[in-house]
Amino acid sequence: xxxxxxSRVLHTLAAEGPLSRATVATRIGLTRAAVSTLVETLLRxxxxxxxxxxxxxxxxxxxxxxxxxxxGPCGFGAEIGVDHLAVCAADLRGEIRVRVEKEFxxxxxxxxxxxxxxxxxxxxxxxxxxxxxxxxAGLAVAVPGLVPRGTTTVLRAPNLGWRDVELAGLLPAxxxxxxxxxxxxxxxxxxxxxxxxxxxxxxVYVSAQIGIGACVVLDGRLLSGAHGFAGExxxxxxxxxxxxxxxGGRGCLETYAGEEAVLRAAGIEPGPGVRLGALTARCEAxxxxxxxxxxxxxxxxxxxxSGAVNLLDPRRVVIGGTLTRLAPWLxxxxxxxLGRRTAVAAGGRETPLPVTASPLGPDGPLRGAAGLAVRTAxxxxxxxxxxxxxx
Length: 391
Known about the structure:
Blueprint: H1 2-16, E1 19-20, H2 21-28, H3 32-44, E2 48-53, E3 64-68, E4 72-80, E5 84-91, E6 96-103, H4 111-131, E7 134-143, E8 153-157, E9 162-166, E10 178-182, H5 183-193, E11 203-208, E12 212-218, E13 221-223, H6 254-257, H7 259-265, H8 277-284, H9 288-312, E14 316-320, H10 327-341, H11 343-346, E15 355-357, H12 364-378, H13 381-389
Helix pairs in contact: 1-3, 2-3, 5-12, 7-9, 8-9, 9-10
């Protein structure tokens, strides 16, 4: 129970700090005396910092303010993308303090070659973290594929060409406990944690990049499915007779709205270093072929999402990933298709379902990975205190 209460103090300060002892006690429903005892443990362990009195809206002398330290234990996040790798470190407040990345074509490369590059980036990130007084307390890795719940195995990643790849022995071993998750799920968690009241939130998050993934958040909780595979939106058939997809099916959403599919439809041949800048510029100039390609992608997204919206009745739909750069031209046909196909629209919803581009853009999965590593560390105060001591 003591470890649970220490964790509650840490999570409260991570979400709302700086706060006084009295405010923390109110938030978690304990007496001020009990919270003071917990706080002293965390202060001695150098996980908290005590600042001067803050502003108070009540009568009496304002209490000193507590905040999580910006030194000591930190969470590392990593992302394996089809065409890039990235590693970052976030302090216990969730702020990204270190970030290193590189363009790297991981598609159809052997996993040990890809992970060798990732380990090199992780070494650079750790060296930079050491320089600002941070020590690793865990690592979460985002991958564009299916990861069974509670494992570090990539069961299938069509856009990488990987099947049944166990990552545990290939990941950095000196960054603490390692977890591996689907990149769209981590992007959705980053979106959730960026909101003011996550407990009341419910949305479908779409990670629209070279591949297309999704996750569902209901009542502030990630819906992962029985095996951890929920959210494979990219392989929902939009037109069953359509072109072949890397998953083995035909007419999947990715063949119409994946980044490479949109570039090709616009007459731009994808390749190393070819991003959406050229396509964005053509859309801004009103080039008809480019606009037609992006609108086709928006329509396909609307068709695929209509089933999820009808089934789950979310509060909103959020588009993340690199395709957020195309939001001015992508979202109108997406919204129009959802309006035509969803039961709530047909039943007379007074206002359309909100469909927005995530302000996190393509950073969502990496930020979500680092955020998950931090939150996992905050769940285990004993391990966190040991990491703060350098044990």
